[in-house]
Specification:
mainly alpha, three-stranded mixed β-sheet, globular, N-terminal part of molybdate metabolism regulator MolR-like protein
């Protein structure tokens, strides 16, 4: 074959088209720009939009079944915190609160890392793989479902939302020891995750070292 194959030389740049290049995944060798400081206080307002629609919390109908006792406790605490001050809470409760609020933004994860640390944020992302808020035509009906192997994925599968993938950015910027602890948490979580969620966890930890030979 006469034509030179388009393999990249070491450290060469690859130019991507807009759709592929607008949100490239960071890597520990190429972490990109630092994460900006979040000043919006997103955590404290999680669920407020739902409460504003309902006017009173008692007007919201909640449905959640097939959860473990630990998850039921976390969901109950998350519901109680809507419209209230959010203290330091467990990662599972934070995951439930973000799910109820349907906030899958990068900015929310940035604030969680900023306030609670990267290892806590990693635990929140792992917990988010197990809970989903189902679509309901009634905005005041909140149905939460535990995700297992029987959960059906539609065209809006949430496996690769911005919240989840933002963790990779923070991991790419983390110190080696912090990266390793978070990677260990992600790897340890794999056996218990539904198979449809496992590729995300496998893709989330970026390269181990900044200077590979």
């Amino acid at each position: 074959m006469d034509k030179e194959l388009p393999w990249l030389a070491d450290n060469a740049q690859l130019e991507l088209k807009y759709k592929k290049g607008k949100t490239p995944l960071s890597h520990r060798n190429w972490p990109g720009e630092p994460v900006p400081v979040i000043t919006e206080n997103i955590i404290q307002t999680l669920g407020d939009e739902l409460l504003q629609k309902a006017e009173k919390k008692k007007n919201i109908v909640w449905r959640y079944e097939n959860f473990s006792l630990e998850w039921l406790s976390a969901i109950t605490q998350a519901i109680n915190l809507i419209g209230e001050h959010k203290p330091s809470i467990t990662a599972r409760t934070m995951a439930a609160l973000a799910c109820i609020a349907q906030n899958d933004s990068q900015q929310l994860l940035d604030e969680i890392v900023q306030q609670e640390g990267l290892e806590y944020a990693t635990e929140v992302v792992i917990a988010r793989q197990f809970i989903v808020r189902c679509y309901e035509s009634d905005p005041l009906l909140v149905t939460l479902q535990y995700q297992n192997e029987d959960y059906g994925y539609g065209y809006r599968a949430e496996t690769y939302n911005e919240f989840d993938l933002r963790l990779r950015k923070h991991l790419s910027l983390a110190e080696e020891s912090s990266w390793q602890r978070c990677a260990d948490k992600l790897i340890a979580a794999l056996p218990g995750l539904p198979q449809a969620r496992r590729p995300f966890i496998a893709a989330d930890p970026p390269g181990k070292t900044r200077n590979r030979q």
